[in-house]
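Write out the 3D structure for:
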Amino acid sequence: MKLRILQTSDWHFGAGVLPASYEFDDNIHRIRENEEAGLLDKLIDIVKKREVDLILAPGDLWDDETIQFSVVRRIMEALGSIAPVPVFIVPGNHDFLSMDSPYRDNIASIHGAVWNDNIHIVKSNKFESYKIPTLPGISLTAMATGANTPVTDRLLASKLPRNNDGINILVFHGSRDTGHLASGAPERLITAPFSDKELIDQGFDFVALGHYHSHSVIKDQHGKTIGAYSGVPFQRDFKSQNQGGAFLFDIDENGVIENSCEVIPVDNRKYFTIKVNLAGIREDNSAEKRIKEMLLDAKCEKEDIVRIKVEGSYSRGLYWQPDLDLSEIAAGYFIDKSLLRPAFNLDEAVKNAATGSAQGVFLQRMLEKLQEESNKETPNKEKIRIIEMAVQMGYEAFSGISPEISGDQIIELDS
């Protein structure tokens, strides 16, 4: 028996369509909203064109249980439209199975809706084995995500239930421990922790995982694919380094057929960050030119959404208000000035200040604080940045300049 499976998760419907805390043009907001609305159509199109036998959806289809039911209804209708192709949904930590979850039949019925018969939703918070009537040759082991647990609670420490006949697949929403979890505080609470070894030792033919937003594949000691995160099909932030999509593969009793594995992009836009150092530049037009050149060097395309982190020293520092039009280079962009430093020499400013003046005393005191922090064995870079920003503010105030200060620039320094 051979099956073609489409794995998709972490849609996060209801979350913002663009990274939070950044200002983007209204036009790209509208474009992204329309593209999000078309996500389901693209996935259904893949199912039909590629003759998929089964869809595995390991969680976070929406971002919060307060999701508008009109969005849930679209999901129900889209997944129901591909019947008799079965859809196996395992709730994650965002679309978790609360008493008010739209996954509950009684909640759906309040809105006059019913989950179609081809849609199978796991509602147990412990691992159980499931059969799909229309696919008798496959057994699925799964659990709905419960409360977060300490990293010391090993999810796969004991053998999980499974059917020894045919194809056995494990499906859950969890946190892969590649070293960074184990090194953290033992009491730290995370979503369903597991290690590669624990997963491999379970002996399933494949493990479909949700939770991490980057696409990644887990292989056994022989290099055979035994698990994967599909990654996010619709990018919403700058966090995912390896954007996912729809993970398509064929599987039989011997496991995943390696040359069948394919990540099908569903979102054409890439999100990335570039750093631009403005050291040595004195004029705005030269700074803008350097930013454009760096974008082109990074092979930025017109569909991309970019965070531009400017750094180094510049004449107006954090108060620089670049008036850039990058629409011919990128669809959306945000300029982050948090690493930009004031372009003046504090030592020179102290020497030039009148002896005993308020300005001189202030600059000398700030110079001492800066040297004290910089000379520590492990200097606090954020504190150094704040001191430099405070120096710039004070220097400009003493010089009769009244710069506009945004809310995120209001700071407190230790005395």
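The CA atoms of residues 4 and 52 lie 5 Å apart.
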